[in-house]
Amino acid sequence: MEENCIFCKIARGDIPSATLYEDEEFRVILDLGPASKGHALILPKKHAANLFELPDETAAKALVVAKRIAGQLKGGLHADGLNLVQNNGAAAGQTVEHFHIHLIPRYQDDTVNVKWQPGELSDADKEEILKLFR
Ligand code: 5GP
Ligand code: ZN
Q: Cα(130)–Cα(55) distance, rounded to whole angstroms?
């Protein structure tokens, strides 16, 4: 538990939240500023600032939890789709430095914006990136 981490306090139940699911390792809550009806957050109870700090085992379990809750939200709310969003670093839009996965139910013609302008993959970028993985 990190002092002053709001999601640590929520995950452990020190601060009340609208909880959809809880087990030993995770709490799933409704986002206080929802992008859409049913917008939820998966919080690990053990603090990790972001994906890079998250233990592999927690990362694996988080996606299983995401899959289950996503299905319940989509079915229960009759959503037409659902985005998983996971921000790391301020440049990527992370505002709370405790790892979390957003579950954002999507409805036909809603105004939620998780799109980007497609660019073009240059040969130079492609070579540089492929080299990193050789
Ligand atoms: P981020 O921008 O870090 O990916 O997402 C943080 C999310 O946490 C935002 O969607 C914001 O609305 C939500 N949030 C921030 N503080 C609280 C809080 O105290 N309670 C709940 N339920 N959600 C919060
Ligand atoms: Zn925390």
A: 26
